[in-house]
Design brief:
The complex is a heterodimer of chains A (263) and B (247).
Chain A: H1 7-18, E1 34-38, E2 46-52, E3 55-66, E4 77-84, H2 99-114, E5 124-126, E6 130-142, H3 147-160, E7 163-170, E8 173-182, E9 190-197, E10 200-203, H4 207-210, E11 215-221, E12 227-233, H5 240-260
Parallel strand pairs in A: 4-6
Antiparallel strand pairs in A: 1-2, 2-3, 3-6, 5-6, 7-8, 9-10, 9-11, 11-12
Helix pairs in contact in A: 2-3
Chain B: E1 27-31, E2 39-45, E3 48-59, E4 72-79, H1 94-107, E5 119-129, H2 134-148, E6 158-165, E7 168-171, H3 175-180, E8 183-190, E9 195-205, H4 207-246
Parallel strand pairs in B: 4-5
Antiparallel strand pairs in B: 1-2, 2-3, 3-5, 6-7, 6-8, 8-9
Helix pairs in contact in B: 1-2
Classes of the chains: A alpha+beta (263), B alpha+beta (247).
Chain lengths: 263, 247
Amino acid sequence: MSSLVTRVRLQQIEKLIKKAKRLDGRALSDYREIEIEQGIIEKAEGSARILLGKTEVLVGVKVETGTPFPDTPNDGVMTVNAELVPLASPNFEPGPPDENSIELARIVDRGIRESHAIDTEKLCIESGKKVFVVFVDIYVLNHDGNLIDASALAAVSALLNTKMPNYEVKDGEVIIKQGYTPLPMKSRPITVTLGKISDKLIVDPWLEEEQVIDSRLTMAFNDEGNICAIQKGGSGYFTQQQILEGMKMAQEKAAEMRKKMKW
Amino acid sequence: MNEKPEKLINKKGLRLDGRKPDELRPVKIVVGILSNADGSAYIEHGKNKILAAAFGPREMHPKHLSLPDRMVLRCRYHMAPFSVGERKSPAPSRREIELSKVIRESLEPSVFVEYYPRTGVDVFIEVLQADGGTRCASITAASLALADAGIPMRDLVVACAAGKVEDTVVLDLFDTEDKLGSADVPVALMPNLNVVTLLQMDGILKPEEFEKAVDMAIAGCRDIYPLQKEALRTKYMLIEQEEEVEE
């Protein structure tokens, strides 16, 4: 996922970060400006658009009826899919999802699933036969770095905005009635991604920084501040010390973000 | 479907398979068992049975994917249809695609990729039987396959998971614990450089439990490492012995 940036500029980014500074003037632990707008797609049961700096992600949630998995007959189903839409970056190409979009979807999925964000038991219509299926579709509209945090925040925002159709069951048939109820939510996970450049950890790397970092560490936290998902990425490594340091940094950041969100 | 067991850890503090919380499953590793691969390894980690093979450095196909200043490492993690309880479709699942990526990224830091520009190395991993912790056992075997192929490396990569089962942090979860437990933390380590090249987690852990799990997983990696080295050495000891006999 690289784009063309001159080597001089990448060296400049690295040099500055060694001095705990960043090209765009942020501190190492600063997020870019965040703007979230909910409910902008009327045809979707839930939606949210996020602007994280210039990174723009739209998440739409569709709720339909389907069959539960045999090992969890009383639970509704949630699936997350991510599309790196070709208009978002010169490096995105049309076609089936590649490993980057699959990884993105699975990281967001893990944060929501493991924190039990959706109360899936309340999505059961008829045990073992019919449940609600929640489709979370991540649409990346402009790629300017840190798609993971942008997508995760937008996904949770969209879920909090989701309305489920009212229904009744008649002779085993689900009949949709007028009106909506909000999607039952139990937790609001916050996902924080750190990049590592020359042994320094930075929060929310943007596109050019992503080309300098040798690895990233993503952590999701639930309402209680416990960790619910982690993913290391990139072809570098972390020392044990850096992992613990990163965890504290991400934890503080997540708490800070939680206050900022109007959830 | 198997019945759900009542307790994952009994009154004596032992797990379903009789292990202590910080005890590994038995590990058996053989290096160089595939004659067509440039390097290969087979690992039995508990009931996991996994084959890994490395090919290369060789010309890249398709050619345009090659890089002018380094070799490209590619990795495919794949599960056999019969490796799990219910038949798994042989088509690569999203999970397998993600795991292929994270396994590649866990091996990459160990390889001197700049030594062979414009070439590619392929690592193929086939899970013949899965019983929890396959990504870790795959990394342990794949790293040996690379070493066996003679690819210059900084260190071997060895992996092991820790997790949480009924409020206890435990090492090396097997399938049932993985499914019914509350968290899983796979870790890959380069033991001599003492750096972590794979770290994932799912489930819920308090920060202090996470610290403990990472500690435990790293200790597990350090316990597997000697077996890994021994397996590599054994292959060449056998070759030496054969040559002596011929003389």
